[in-house]
Specification:
- By secondary structure, the protein is mainly α.
- Helix 1 packs antiparallel against helix 2.
- The longest helix has about 40 residues.
- The termini are far apart.
């Protein structure tokens, strides 16, 4: 589940990208005065949100690295490394273009390199899993922490009826004769 920590980056990066795009094209829809305000909003919104996204990226990366060192197996959740990082690449690229900042351009390029690497790793593992058939098998349930996996317990009797036709009719209450029946 550690790779799913990257999903948080999706809305962050996409919102930075959307704010930048709206600020860029606002001049086509509103007066120059409002277009300038939209561009300023894109910058005032985008910079702190991208900063938070980068902080989250570092935290999620550290947690995934720790899980990797503890034997994180490949699962389809690894695809969470791709789209969210891609939105951050687009958001950082937009801010770099708007500000002509070399630092933001470097952030965008670094994120892009990490995105391409993630795509390559995840696509390779997915192809291997498909070819071997491992991705199409149901995984064994994990043992609870501190316990050893053992044989499955014998099935117990059902605690509730699942077939409504098997239910016996309920007996009438004692005072049912006092209640008039409607036709």
């Amino acid at each position: 589940m550690a790779p799913t920590l990257f999903i948080v980056l999706g809305p962050l990066g996409q919102s930075v990208s959307a704010a930048h795009t709206l600020g860029t094209v606002a001049g086509d829809a509103v007066t120059d005065r409002y277009a300038g305000a939209c561009e300023a909003f894109a910058l005032l919104y985008g910079m702190p949100v991208l900063g938070f996204a980068l902080a989250w990226f570092a935290l999620a990366g550290a947690l995934v690295w720790r899980a990797h060192r503890q034997g994180l197996p490949f699962a389809m959740t690894w695809w969470a490394f791709t789209f969210p990082v891609g939105t951050c690449v687009k958001g950082a690229s937009g801010l770099a273009a708007q500000t002509d900042s070399v630092a933001l351009g470097s952030v965008a390029v670094t994120l892009y390199v990490l995105l391409v690497a993630a795509w390559a790793v995840v696509a390779t593992h997915t192809a291997r899993g498909c070819l071997s058939g491992r991705l199409f098998r149901t995984p064994a349930p994990a043992a609870a922490p501190g316990t050893k996996p053992g044989p499955e317990p014998a099935p117990s009797a059902p605690t509730h009826a699942t077939n409504l036709s098997a239910l016996a009719p309920l007996p009438a209450p004692a005072d049912a004769a006092l209640v008039p029946r409607s036709a």
